[in-house]
Design brief:
Elements lengths: L12 H18 L1 E10 L2 E2 L4 E2 L2 E13 L6 E8 L2 E13 H9 L13 E4 L4 E9 L12 E8 L6 E2 L4 H4 L14
Parallel strand pairs: 4-10
Antiparallel strand pairs: 1-4, 1-7, 2-3, 4-6, 5-6, 6-9, 7-8, 8-9
Length: 184
């Protein structure tokens, strides 16, 4: 065996907890406050594997680190044949234990962030949709994974219902946000 048998880097729970604590503290220092909005499927289509009526009803506040230090990425604003399109993207880093502390303890079905959930930035009042969650990084620091990387893009409203109990989120898209398009 080539590695030293006296140093077991992948079995030491104390070192893993230390790295977790350092990651959480650094995100709290350099991160921003976000509001995580979970999605409930209202009318799931099993054939096309999509949801015709998403309901956003539960929110959690916690901190995340913005990996894009130069601002929002993506294609930015451009004029297409369909009008002005804004394609801002952002990559956020959330500590696993932070997500477990705020979300997983209150909702046992959410072990990790899910694609399709929303992130609301109170800082600039924009809402982003999670398009990909990197939950299995290839490099495990000391044998454990400390963070989730959330790749998000600017959310385009298309008839979803917001019933979070927060006025700034429920009325974010005006009066059309809480009307059911199926009943109209």
């Amino acid at each position: 065996m080539a590695t030293n048998k006296f140093f077991q880097n992948y079995d030491n729970i104390y070192e893993q907890n230390l790295i977790d604590d350092l990651v959480i503290e650094s995100i709290q220092i350099y991160g921003v406050d976000i509001i995580y909005i979970s999605r409930t499927l209202g009318a799931e289509d099993k054939i096309l594997n999509e949801d015709d009526l998403s309901i956003f009803d539960v929110t959690w506040d916690f901190e995340a680190y913005v990996k894009n230090v130069d601002g929002f990425e993506g294609e930015g604003d451009f004029l297409s044949r369909f009008g002005l399109e804004i394609r801002d993207t952002v990559t956020l880093t959330v500590a696993n234990r932070t997500f477990e502390r705020f979300v997983s303890r209150n909702d046992i079905n959410r072990k990790r962030p899910f694609e399709g959930d929303l992130i609301y930035f109170p800082l600039n009042e924009k809402m982003f949709k999670i398009t990909h969650v990197e939950h299995e990084s290839i490099f495990y620091q000391a044998g454990a994974l400390q963070v989730y990387d959330l790749k998000c893009e600017l959310f385009e409203y298309s008839g979803e219902r917001f019933e979070t109990g927060r006025d700034n989120i429920d009325t974010f898209f005006g009066d059309t946000a809480n009307t059911n398009p199926m009943l109209a």
